[in-house]
Amino acid sequence: MRVPGRRLRRIVRRLRNCFTDRGVILMYHRIAELDCDPWGLAVSPSHFAEHLQILTRLSPIPLPDLVQDLGAGIAPHRPIVVTFDDGYADNVETAQPLLEQYGIPATVFLATGTIGGEREFWWDELQRVLLEPHDLPRELDLRSYRRELGGDATNFDSSDLRHRSWRAWEEPPTTRHAIYRELWHLLYRLPHADKCSVLDSLMAWAGLRHGVRQTHRLVSVKEMTALAASSLIEVGAHTVTHPALPLLGAAAQADEIQHSKHFLEERLDRRISCFSYPHGDHQPGTVSAVRAAGFTSACGTAAGTVSAQSDCLTLPRFQVLNWSGEEFRLHLEAWQD
Q1: What are the angstrom distances between the C-alpha of 234 and each of 105, 211, 225, 289, 311?
Q2: Which of these, 10, 25, 106, 214, could form a disulfide with 81 (CB 3.0-4.6 Å)?
Q3: Which tens digit of pLDDT belongs to each residue from 194-213?
């Protein structure tokens, strides 16, 4: 069958949008040197600088610009966007100066309930209890969860390379690591107040005092304002307490989404249009709540590229790990192609 010229050109344009002009949204969390990083959230400052050197040659664009183009049916040529999730203080102390040095725009998504708070994120408190080099009781009896620690209760060497390089998706090298992963999955499903209650019990069991480690500090109100004052940084919302949204009821989901938006808008005196799903978790009702709250874009954590056909409320991203500049370049080329 012969295809008319005009129709053929339309087909070619659609194919070009689908396969040629695919964009990449990068997801970072922390720019820091950590002795223990179970989820691979931290990129060292030296590696991050190498990443930015590569990105300067590719002219990253702000997330709102990408969303505006997609809304207009425009597919920018191989766009790249930089984002950060959660709101660790090193985003201000370390990432922001480097972003400004290299002129790279970024969006930083903040979990507003942690801003200026006196607790670490729950997964960090759990890491502090189980994976730091202090002695623990030989048995953990926590509600309906019971575990024997055996020889791993004492003489735990966190500097062991097996421990420093361990990631939570790998086989646990010790009983402590196994308990960490099991409790992470249990805590993940709990409401925020219940998470805090369990962690309080764990801290008491471990003989630890509450407090925020300097290495795991979250942004203060003053630092949030400093982020928003940068011409290169867009502040976005990341809920209030960082829950797994689909596990909440409709009203609770709406509260988490709307209150994080209102908090930022009131304190920064600007419209907040970008959202990020905690853990990347969402379902149709979650997306509807994000749309109803007035957000024009929302990022998940599913790996994938962005095209003219992408839904702006379920944008995919690629998580960046602590790669050297050369490793980062190879990953970036693979994602783009």
Answers
A1: 8, 30, 11, 22, 20
A2: 25
A3: 999 999 999 999 999 999 99
